[in-house]
Specification:
12 helices, about 0% strand, disordered N terminus
Length: about 270
């Protein structure tokens, strides 16, 4: 039950980081004014939920899949697995649902230490200041403070797995395009810089792995085509012969395990 609660907390928190402006441009010190409504006691907790609170909750649920995709290792996993399927030439086997499920399980496996660190960083605040219901009037302030407590482990993960060149590029781009009021407080470790840097870094790494995956299967296709052409069997599709050879190769070297192991070990 504790692991299930941890997973739910982690993915909900990722979605909140995705939609809240405070999470995108974090400041060094937390705003003490956000804690004022919580100090008023049960009166603030029992307030009726306002329209903005309801909209924020609905938006968080709607954007949760995108947050899981962009703020975890899911993006790289699903791209590499899709490229592996295309290299095999098996069309829809395994299906998209299976690839997404495998990528999600691998992302949970990779992100578990980060999720545990985020949970531990905000555990005491959650236990001492949790509102009676998430639809109460003080929920917005509570969520912002939880995000402020739990942001550092996620920021460290994004920083470790981001290419420095990409991070510098997006920092320079943000510095040129942002107003002067934001430039003086802009840092390379802000979420507004880290998020696009991390996404592009993951895509680059995924396609680098895809090139390595495609090479042996390309050789099989090339050799099969030349052999059939030399034998005069031009009416026979090379894919008919190459596909069993590809499947035999992936089974002999335990290719799925090698790909999964390589992807997991690629994260720091």
């Amino acid at each position: 039950m504790r692991k299930c609660s941890l997973f739910s907390f982690f993915f909900l928190l990722l979605s909140l980081f995705w939609i809240a402006p405070q999470g995108l441009h974090a400041q060094a010190a937390p705003d003490t004014s956000l804690q004022a409504p919580l100090a008023s006691g049960d009166a603030g907790v029992n307030q009726e939920p306002n329209v903005l609170t309801k909209i924020a909750v609905i938006a968080a649920l709607a954007l949760m899949p995108y947050a899981i995709m962009m703020l975890t290792s899911f993006l790289k996993m699903v791209v590499v697995l899709s490229l592996l399927r295309n290299a095999l030439g098996t069309q829809q086997s395994p299906p998209n649902q299976a690839i997404n499920g495998i990528a999600l399980l691998m992302a949970i496996y990779v992100m578990f230490p980060t999720g545990l660190a985020m949970y531990n960083a905000s555990k005491s605040y959650i236990q001492n200041n949790a509102p009676q219901t998430l639809m109460s009037g003080a929920t917005a302030y509570y969520i912002v403070n939880v995000m402020d407590k739990a942001k550092e482990p996620l920021k460290d993960f994004l920083q470790r797995n981001t290419i420095a060149k990409h991070q510098r590029y997006f920092y320079q781009l943000a510095y040129k395009s942002f107003p002067d009021d934001f430039r003086k407080d802009l840092k390379m470790t802000d979420f507004i810089v880290l998020l696009p840097s991390y996404v592009t870094s993951q895509l680059k790494s995924a396609f680098e792995v895809g090139v390595l995956i495609f090479l042996p299967f390309f050789v099989i296709d090339l050799v099969t085509s030349n052999i059939l052409l030399a034998m005069g069997m031009m009416m026979l599709s090379p894919l008919t012969i190459a596909l069993p050879l590809k499947l035999l190769l992936i089974v002999m070297i335990d290719g799925w395990t090698l790909v999964v192991q390589g992807l997991v070990l690629s994260y720091r």
